[in-house]
């Protein structure tokens, strides 16, 4: 057992017993942390691992939340039945939206994804087809029901979010050791070299987009259950900027980095409510300062995501 | 027909505002290959500085031409100072860092300026004084042009011609163009790249400051987070024209202004932003280098 495994196990154990140690205010902060950490991890698959400059990630998060809300409130679906849709619809849209622009150079992609996010915001707040509820959003989303049990308590929602985090971490772990993960790693390192080695760049980038969108959509579903309401401002492009910043400030492709980033951006503000007025000013300054002192993020990934067995092979070859 | 002409005039006015702001983006991008996300917030900041200065001058006496010139000059100087400070603190230390670090730094700087404005002037909407310029307007056979619009159109045209001459006829202009093509080669030719970048930030911020003052006079309502809206529009204008190209930014600004005016005049105001971004995405798909952009092959 190395140091990383110990830290990771410790973190998961603390998160698992967290609801028994705290009061309800802290519990809801805990849920927020878990949900946003999952979204940040999904953004990391696109931005940190594939190296695709995506600044519209709140779209997929929002699509998941709105899908659950619309299907549940307008069409009477059970929450559990909305989950597949909350995952599939963001995936379909991620491929449709990113497909035509995936070949663009980084900065252009950045602006195009901001554009998509602003279009998404206008679609939500203009109450398209009478489904999205306009600027106020949708209220009265049901509880999570499974096998006849109503999971109404915050603790239940916490464990749903925690389970989602575990699943996300498992997906990322499998990604790292798979063919797909390696392809993304090489594309991120040197796109032209990867292309000349025969890697289909657009395909893998779209795969990253689809996977990221799927996880973000699932997180959106949990978000909708937690607040039993959704509204456009939770998914505006400033939110996307935040996810973008979390990955890069924390350290791209680095699990502890993303956790730290999420903590700083979403949990600290809840703790220091007295600084509410100036908190974004402090964040902004901290973002500049972090980048100057640690351009690769607070806790960068030490080996990128080269799978361990490859490193072993390389050592043996020497 | 009259409404069409009227929309065109309004569109040109808004377009020249976009063009003034877009020049700041395009020059920085041309030389540093960096989207200066904080530029839009500098523009918002200048509108607020202008507002404060104008209300200061209103206190004692009526606004005269001299006072107006003083306000414009002071605002331009203050904003240029902040622009240079921004480059020093947020961008210069990151010139050799990974590209995304500079983007995050720009976003951070944008948050700092935006929330700095909120802390100084408060989160509520501020109203720009109405009668900075005489409220005269002329009616040309049904098409109305206000004095403010005329000043915006005329002064923007003058500034753009001046910038064009500066870039193409002066020694500093040549240095800027050389740095934009190849920073290392320019260094070898004895060009002080730091000075070039500083000059770009001074010019860009000053043009943005004047754009911000005009935005204040034209729209009147100021909010602390308005920088992103104008900044993004101006940035789209820069992309339409081909980012890095100065005539491109001017033309892109005017075209985007006209496009916006026609969309809000004839189709819908609620969906105006959506149409702007759809236009942007179509341009990016069809011709990502814009109207005046050059195709550059990627080096292996």
From TrEMBL, chain A:
Keywords (A to Z) from UniProt: Cell membrane, Membrane, Transmembrane, Transmembrane helix
Residues passing through the membrane, by range: 26-46, 58-77, 83-101, 108-125, 156-175, 206-229, 241-268, 280-299
Subcellular location: Cell membrane
Gene Ontology CC terms, in alphabetical order: plasma membrane
Membrane topology, as annotated: Multi-pass membrane protein
GO terms, molecular function: branched-chain amino acid transmembrane transporter activity
Pfam families: BPD_transp_2
Entries under CDD domains matching the protein: TM_PBP1_LivM_like
Superkingdom classification of source: Bacteria
UniProt keyword annotation of Transmembrane helix present: yes
Protein name according to UniProt: Inner-membrane translocator
Biological classification of the source: Bacteria, Pseudomonadati, Campylobacterota, Epsilonproteobacteria, Campylobacterales
From TrEMBL, chain B:
Biological process per Gene Ontology, one example term: L-alanine transport
Pfam families the UniProt entry points to: BPD_transp_2
One GO CC annotation: plasma membrane
Signal peptide coordinates: none
Membrane topology (UniProt): Multi-pass membrane protein
Entry keyword annotation includes Cell membrane: yes
Keyword Signal: no
Transmembrane regions: 12-30, 42-59, 65-86, 98-121, 141-167, 196-219, 231-259, 271-292
UniProt-recorded Gene Ontology molecular function terms: L-isoleucine transmembrane transporter activity; L-leucine transmembrane transporter activity; L-phenylalanine transmembrane transporter activity; L-valine transmembrane transporter activity
Keywords: Amino-acid transport, Cell inner membrane, Cell membrane, Membrane, Transmembrane, Transmembrane helix, Transport
Chief location bin: membrane
Subcellular location: Cell membrane
Family as reported in the entry's similarity comment: Belongs to the binding-protein-dependent transport system permease family. LivHM subfamily.
Protein name, as recorded: Inner-membrane translocator
């Amino acid at each position: 057992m190395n140091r990383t495994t110990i830290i990771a196990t410790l973190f998961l154990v603390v998160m698992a017993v967290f609801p028994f140690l705290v009061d309800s205010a802290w519990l809801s902060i805990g849920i927020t942390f878990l949900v946003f950490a999952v979204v940040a991890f999904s953004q990391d698959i696109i931005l940190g691992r594939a190296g695709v400059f995506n600044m519209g990630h709140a779209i997929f998060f929002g699509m998941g939340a709105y899908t659950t809300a619309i299907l549940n409130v307008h069409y009477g679906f059970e929450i559990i039945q909305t989950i597949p849709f909350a995952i599939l619809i963001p995936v379909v849209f991620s491929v449709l939206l990113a497909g035509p622009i995936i070949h663009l150079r980084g900065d252009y992609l950045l602006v195009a994804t901001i554009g998509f996010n602003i279009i998404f915001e206008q679609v939500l707040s203009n109450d398209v087809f009478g489904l999205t509820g306009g600027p106020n959003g949708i209220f009265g989303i049901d509880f999570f029901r499974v096998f006849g049990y109503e999971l109404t308590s915050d603790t239940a929602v916490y464990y749903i979010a925690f389970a989602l985090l575990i699943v996300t971490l498992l997906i990322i772990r499998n990604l790292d050791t798979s063919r797909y993960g390696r392809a993304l790693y090489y594309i991120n390192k040197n796109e032209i070299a990867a292309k000349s080695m025969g890697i289909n760049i657009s395909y893998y980038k779209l795969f990253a987009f689809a996977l990221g969108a799927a996880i973000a959509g699932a997180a959106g579903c949990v978000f909708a259950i937690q607040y039993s309401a959704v509204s456009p401002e939770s998914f505006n492009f400033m939110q996307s900027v935040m996810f973008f910043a979390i990955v890069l400030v924390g350290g791209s492709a680095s699990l502890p980095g993303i956790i730290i980033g999420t903590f700083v951006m979403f949990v600290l503000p809840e703790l220091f409510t007295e600084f509410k007025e100036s908190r974004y000013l402090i964040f902004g300054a901290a973002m500049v300062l972090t980048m100057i002192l640690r351009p690769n993020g607070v806790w960068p990934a030490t080996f990128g995501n080269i799978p361990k067995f490859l490193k072993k092979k390389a050592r043996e070859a020497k | 027909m009259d409404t069409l002409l009227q929309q065109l005039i309004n569109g040109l006015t808004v377009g020249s505002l976009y063009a003034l702001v877009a020049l700041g983006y395009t020059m920085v991008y041309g030389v540093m290959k960096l989207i200066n996300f904080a530029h839009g917030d500098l523009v918002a900041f200048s509108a607020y500085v202008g507002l404060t200065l104008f209300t200061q001058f209103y206190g004692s006496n009526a606004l005269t031409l001299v006072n107006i010139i003083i306000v414009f000059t002071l605002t331009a100087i203050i904003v240029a100072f902040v622009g240079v400070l921004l480059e020093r603190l947020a961008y210069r230390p990151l010139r050799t860092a990974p590209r995304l670090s500079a983007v995050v730094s720009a976003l951070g700087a944008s948050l700092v300026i935006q929330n700095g404005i909120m802390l100084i002037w408060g989160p509520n909407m501020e109203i720009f004084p109405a009668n900075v310029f005489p409220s005269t307007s002329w009616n040309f056979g049904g098409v109305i042009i206000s004095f403010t619009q005329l000043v915006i159109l005329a002064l923007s045209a003058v500034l753009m011609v001046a910038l064009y001459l500066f870039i193409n006829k002066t020694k500093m202009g040549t240095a800027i163009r050389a740095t934009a093509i190849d920073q290392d080669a320019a260094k070898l030719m004895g060009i002080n790249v730091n000075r070039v970048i500083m000059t770009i930030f001074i010019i860009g911020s000053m043009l943005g400051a004047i754009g911000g003052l005009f935005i204040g006079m034209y729209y009147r309502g100021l909010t602390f987070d308005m920088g992103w809206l104008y900044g993004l529009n101006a940035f789209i204008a820069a992309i339409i024209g081909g980012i890095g190209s100065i005539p491109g930014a001017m033309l892109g600004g005017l075209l985007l202004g006209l496009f916006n005016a026609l969309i809000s005049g004839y189709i819908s105001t609620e969906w105006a932003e959506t149409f702007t971004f759809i236009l942007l995405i179509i341009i990016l798909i069809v011709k990502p280098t814009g109207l005046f952009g050059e195709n550059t092959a990627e080096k292996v």
